[in-house]
Amino acid sequence: MDWDDFPGWGAKISDWAAEYHRTLRDRPVRAQTQPGDIAAQLPDAPPEGPEGMQAILDDFERIVMPGMTHWQHPRFFAYFPANAAPPSMLAEMLVSTLAAQCMLWQTSPAATEMETRMLDWLRQAIGLPERFAGVIQDSASSATLAAVLTMRERALDWQGNAEGLSGMPRLRVYASAEVHSSVDRAIWVAGIGQENLVRVPVAGPLRGMDAAALEAAIAADIAAGHRPAGVVACTGGTGTGACDDLQEVIAVAKRHGLYVHVDAAWAGAAMICPEFRTLWTGVEGADSVVFNPHKWLGAQFDCSAHFVAEPDALVRTLAIQPEYLKTHGHDGLINYSEWSVPLGRRFRALKLWFLIRSYGLEGLRTRLRNHVAWSRALADRLRADPAFEIVTEPVLSLFTFRLAGQDDATQLAFVNRVNDDGRIYLTQTKVDGRMVVRFQVGQFDATEDDVRVAGDVIRELGAA
């Protein structure tokens, strides 16, 4: 293909994309293929000669599409959607066209300066104080890893990167069992070790970390000769929407000089609505906070907003400056590659610019408020049906439920039956050792009718 052919094929794909989104409700949400179905249709060896674009697109429809789970489907109620609002998609087309590697200010000044401003727009939108500065990471997992590395280095007086962990005190990091599994992975990658991730019991209706138990765990570790390094708190845990009492947790951590990272990967987006900020009262005392605009705000994956109260600590942990990466003659510039684990960086801020300008904060707030209201209404509908029991009450747009009086195997069979049916998509989790069904509303184009249909499907297949 040459550039003379490119516009025609680009237009054809754009038309296909629009039609795909317009007709998504006609497709089953989850892929209906069996393991190996797609691989069996792909040649074992690459072609020696060129093939026509029409043939490639035909095979895309024939081979690829049947094996896709449709994350943009309005009846995707599993996990948390990775949304892609139309303005965000258009911005990504421009980013792909420019194909810039935005690791330094000098490698694309517009990307760096727009990232600074877009993160400040988000900071204002969610109500964080001015002392927080932001960076876009690829995912909350990377932001959490950066936070754990920073708490490790700070606890070791910045000697971990230089000397390694051998011979150092045993570091301890504290979190509840409700935090995302990316915390465990960050502990592994940081070299701290799974045994040193201390699980603090939860209490209360929001299943938040017990502050008294946290205090006791820290004191016990100090007495044992260990070195507490930090706390990973959550606002909106993945399983049930658990929310730690940040005011209490941060107060305990600060008494011991510990770094506090708050994972608000999906729920943080809701903080653009002031009435939801009671879920993270005290967040201003944290050292770092992360949420994913690519989950609930409509920014295309990947786009994770990582805010830090002291950027110097993050940069001191991650920055390496060989001569070929130095920007000479300009002092005080931000090179965001020094704020993240990967050196390479995409121009992720452009989609935030397109998205926020296209909808405005009030337009985005309306969508989130609708999702929360519709989810709560469905929870009440299921509560009124004796075939179901609500296990955890709605936290924003997430709640869990069970088929009343049924064992775990039946709960899992129900989830599989729903997903094989294809009209909606759900996932399961465990609460206090019992299998439950998760439900959340967060897909960007979901309507009240989509949630009503979800309720109809759940009741129909639950009765079966």
Topology:
Blueprint: H1 6-22, H2 53-64, H3 86-98, H4 109-126, E1 133-137, H5 140-155, H6 160-163, E2 171-176, H7 181-189, E3 197-200, E4 202-203, E5 208-209, H8 211-223, E6 227-234, H9 246-255, E7 259-263, E8 288-291, H10 293-296, E9 304-308, H11 311-318, H12 349-383, E10 388-395, E11 398-403, H13 408-421, E12 427-431, E13 434-440, H14 448-463
Parallel strand pairs: 2-3, 2-6, 6-7, 7-8
Antiparallel strand pairs: 1-9, 4-5, 8-9, 10-11, 11-13, 12-13
Helix pairs in contact: 3-12, 4-12, 5-7, 5-11, 8-9, 12-14
- Give the termini distance in whole angstroms: 53 Å
Helical proportion, percent range? 40-55%
Report the CATH topology name of the domain at 101-346: Aspartate Aminotransferase, domain 2
Helix and strand content put the structural class at: alpha/beta
* Low-pLDDT segments: none
- Under CATH at level 1, the class of the domain at 101-346 stands as Alpha Beta
Question: What is the global morphology?
Answer: globular
Strand content: 5-15%
Describe the structure using short key phrases.
Aspartate Aminotransferase, domain 2; 14 helices; four-stranded antiparallel β-sheet; 464 residues; single chain; seven-stranded mixed β-sheet; alpha/beta; globular
Structure summarized in a few sentences:
By secondary structure, this protein is of the alpha/beta class.
Structure description:
It is a single chain. The chain has 464 residues and is of the alpha/beta class. It has a domain at 101-346: Type I PLP-dependent aspartate aminotransferase-like (Major domain) (Aspartate Aminotransferase, domain 2), CATH 3.40.640.10. 41% of the residues lie in helices and 14% in strands. The protein contains 14 helices and 13 strands. The strands form 3 sheets. It has a 7-stranded mixed sheet with strand order 1-9-8-7-6-2-3, sandwiched between helices. Strand 10 (388-395) and strand 11 form a beta hairpin. The longest helix is centred in the last third of the chain and has 35 residues, at 349-383. The model has no long low-confidence stretch (mean pLDDT 92).
